[in-house]
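Q: what sequence does this backbone want?
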């Protein structure tokens, strides 16, 4: 049945040399290969392109192939072959020769009891999910435009920048940058400036008949009837599927058609479920609010457990914590708006509670309908309006302010190199991790294990623990008592990202092995930083910071370019803000792939040094500093 969802679109590529938006990459277990999900902007369908390069999952080890095979219990039937490869080890600052163990399937490498990685004493890059590995190796950029050439190859479609933008780049950005920075900047600018199409999507919401007001339906047991399912599209189309409970329900529900709503009333729930599945099959991008944990999970379990639908016939695929649709993509906005960096940096903390009502009111000025009676006692018109309203809010969360949420998602995909369904469900640390993995593979770098970083750079810190018991954090200058007027705030823009850039702080450059670098000790700590080679995190964070501060923020205010270009530049700088502002925090997160306590505490130490130096200078100038916190000073009655 899986083939029926995908096979229908494959032949189209040979006949139609069109451009498609890459929404993501996944793995097909039946075909045992990766495939790309491509959005057809003309037909508004998802097409699938299957790998034609013979790419296979793999891991790396420092053992010779013969030594790998001599390991007791090693599952030889999982091994498809060996290759000797050379990688640059950033922790050792030298090239190393390794053995690439090629697996037959992703589970041959990891994820099962008898996977290869479990038998090796030392192994690298064995915990990277296969579809991500494929993205990195192929250099694919989700969220960008691709075309299929005459040989059936997936090729990035390059877009020309306008003369005004090119002139702006050279005038405002590239004069004082290194060759390495220029190359990365131009690469990112060309990706970020690719146009974002108006993707067609449909929001879904269901209502369940509850036996009592305080009852919360269990999506796994799915014991009670689905009585309504609303669909609202990005084109303004509205449809409600209802389960009749009274004789005249059909007649009553028809009144909604006067408001432009398509209404279908069913006499039994099985018919209702079948129609829901038909609608989902027609939908390229399905949007829900908590659909992973409730709506789609409830629909699937209700159909299978109570009506005997065959799992293969249902266009929904469940995992432990997620729900996907077989012929398209599913975005769960609950999980996206739950991401701390999205809430704080992208939407400026406008909402605090992560529920549809709170977010709708904060961003749209529109919340859920307040019910004065329980769901089971609503008339069919009231039920339809309630369900439709929830679907409308879900849809509008992607449409409001010129589709800013959807534009933000696409831009974040381009920066992080993550598929849309992964990005909207994962934390900022995973976005930054994948961005760094991509850059490591592009440069031929060995991706280090976290244990290797800790072993070489040290798990202990040299400052007094104040940040989660690990190291000293930002400085806070005690406020002077009293009520103060005419206070000016002096803000050190992007202080920590600037420190990462200017001080060359990265997991490999901190406490590097070069003797001559040991004199380059950072203030307030016992750590030195490399003067021989630019660190990969320092380079990337520095470029993202400079692109935002010196290019996109200025461009968003430049009257010499079009209004549309200014608006788009503003959305891009907001996307970059999410990454730049989170770049320091992840380095001090022990769950981060490149966790390095020495680097994290060095950043805060330099930050404290900078603030104290600023206070000293302010005092020398006779300024009255009444308070300071992290990256800001509060100065009372400054001279004009």
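A:
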């Amino acid at each position: 049945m899986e083939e029926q969802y995908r096979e229908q679109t494959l032949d189209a590529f040979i006949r139609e040399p069109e451009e498609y938006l890459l929404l993501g990459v996944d793995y097909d277990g039946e075909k045992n290969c990766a495939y790309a999900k491509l959005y057809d902007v003309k037909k508004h369908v998802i097409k699938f392109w299957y790998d034609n390069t013979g790419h296979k999952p793999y891991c790396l080890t420092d053992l010779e192939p013969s030594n790998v095979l001599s390991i007791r219990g090693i599952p030889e039937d999982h091994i498809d072959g060996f290759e000797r490869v050379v990688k640059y080890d950033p922790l050792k600052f030298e090239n190393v020769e390794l053995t690439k163990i090629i697996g037959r399937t992703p589970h041959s490498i990891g994820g099962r009891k008898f996977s290869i990685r479990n038998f090796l004493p030392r192994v690298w890059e064995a915990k990277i999910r296969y579809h991500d590995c494929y993205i990195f190796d192929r250099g694919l950029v989700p969220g960008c435009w691709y075309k299929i050439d005459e040989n059936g190859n997936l090729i990035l479609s390059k877009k020309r920048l306008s003369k005004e933008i090119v002139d702006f780049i050279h005038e405002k950005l590239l004069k004082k940058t290194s060759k390495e920075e220029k190359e990365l900047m131009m690469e990112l600018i060309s990706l970020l400036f690719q146009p974002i199409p108006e993707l067609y999507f449909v929001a879904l919401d269901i209502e369940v008949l509850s036996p009592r007001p305080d009852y919360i339906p269990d999506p796994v047991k799915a014991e009670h009837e689905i009585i309504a399912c609303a669909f609202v599209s990005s084109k303004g189309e509205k449809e409600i599927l209802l389960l009749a409970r009274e004789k005249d329900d059909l007649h009553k529900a028809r009144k909604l058609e006067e408001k432009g709503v398509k209404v279908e009333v069913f006499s039994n729930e099985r018919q209702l479920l079948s129609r829901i599945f038909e609608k989902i099959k027609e939908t390229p991008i399905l949007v829900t609010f908590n659909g992973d944990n409730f709506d789609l999970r409830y629909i699937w379990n209700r159909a299978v457990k109570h009506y005997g639908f065959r799992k293969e016939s249902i266009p929904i695929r469940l995992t432990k914590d997620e729900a996907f649709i077989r012929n398209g993509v599913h975005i769960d906005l609950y999980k996206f708006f739950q991401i701390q960096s999205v809430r704080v940096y992208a939407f400026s903390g406008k909402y605090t509670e992560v529920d549809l009502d709170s977010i709708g009111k904060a961003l749209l000025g529109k919340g859920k309908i307040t019910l004065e009676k329980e769901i089971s006692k609503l008339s069919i018109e009231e039920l339809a309006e309630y369900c439709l309203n929830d679907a409308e809010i879900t849809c509008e969360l992607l449409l409001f302010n010129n589709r800013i949420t959807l534009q933000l998602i696409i831009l974040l995909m381009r920066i992080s190199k993550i598929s849309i369904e992964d990005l909207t469900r994962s934390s900022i640390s995973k976005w930054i991790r994948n961005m760094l993995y991509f850059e490591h593979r592009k440069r031929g770098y060995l991706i280090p294990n976290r244990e290797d970083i800790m072993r070489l750079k040290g798990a202990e810190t040299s400052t007094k623990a104040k940040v989660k018991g690990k190291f000293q954090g930002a400085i806070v200058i005690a406020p002077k008592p009293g009520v103060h007027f005419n206070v000016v705030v002096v803000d050190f823009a992007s202080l920590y990202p600037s420190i990462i850039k200017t001080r060359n702080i990265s997991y490999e450059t901190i406490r590097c092995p070069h003797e001559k670098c040991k004199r380059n000790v950072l203030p307030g700590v016992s750590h030195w930083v490399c003067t021989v080679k630019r660190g990969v995190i320092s380079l990337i964070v520095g470029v993202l910071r400079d692109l935002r501060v010196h290019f996109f923020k200025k461009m968003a205010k430049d009257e010499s370019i079009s209004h549309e270009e200014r608006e788009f530049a503003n959305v891009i700088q907001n996307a970059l803000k999410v990454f730049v502002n989170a770049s320091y925090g992840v380095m001090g997160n022990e769950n981060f792939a490149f966790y390095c306590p020495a680097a994290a505490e060095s950043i805060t130490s330099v930050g404290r040094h900078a603030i104290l130096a600023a206070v000293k200078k302010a005092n020398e100038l006779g300024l009255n500093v009444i308070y300071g916190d992290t990256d800001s000073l509060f100065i009372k009655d400054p001279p004009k």
